[in-house]
Specification:
Layout (H helix, E strand, L loop, with lengths): L14 H11 L4 H8 L3 H8 L3 H4 L1 H4 L16 H25 L3
Helix pairs in contact: 2-3
């Protein structure tokens, strides 16, 4: 890390990357990040404001995405029986093949 084409690198060099990634993830608000990094909210806003528009693209898009529960698949008893028979056959073939190879 210390030998780089861009000069000497230290762990402190990763600070910018860390702050940028945290802001882009959207999991940490700027106020918490500023406190965590030992700097002011004003400094975070001043140096990382280019990241902020990317953070709010979903909110500013005008598209509302609802988190809905997936619908249960409604399959007929005949379809379920057919699927069960196919999977049972595949499993039995798999068991025989593995026994032949000595894996089971």
């Amino acid at each position: 890390m210390k030998q780089s084409a861009h000069g000497v690198r230290t762990l402190y060099s990763l600070r910018h990357t860390y702050i940028t990634w945290q802001l882009m993830s959207g999991e940490v608000c700027m106020k918490v990040l500023a406190k965590q990094c030992g700097t002011s909210l004003q400094m975070i806003e001043q140096h990382y404001s280019y990241v902020v528009p990317k953070m709010f693209t979903r909110e500013l898009s005008g598209v509302k995405v609802r988190k809905s529960k997936p619908k249960k698949a409604t399959r007929s008893p005949a379809a379920l029986a057919k699927s069960h028979a196919r999977l049972t056959k595949q499993f039995n073939e798999w068991v025989l093949e593995y026994k032949k190879r000595g894996c089971i």
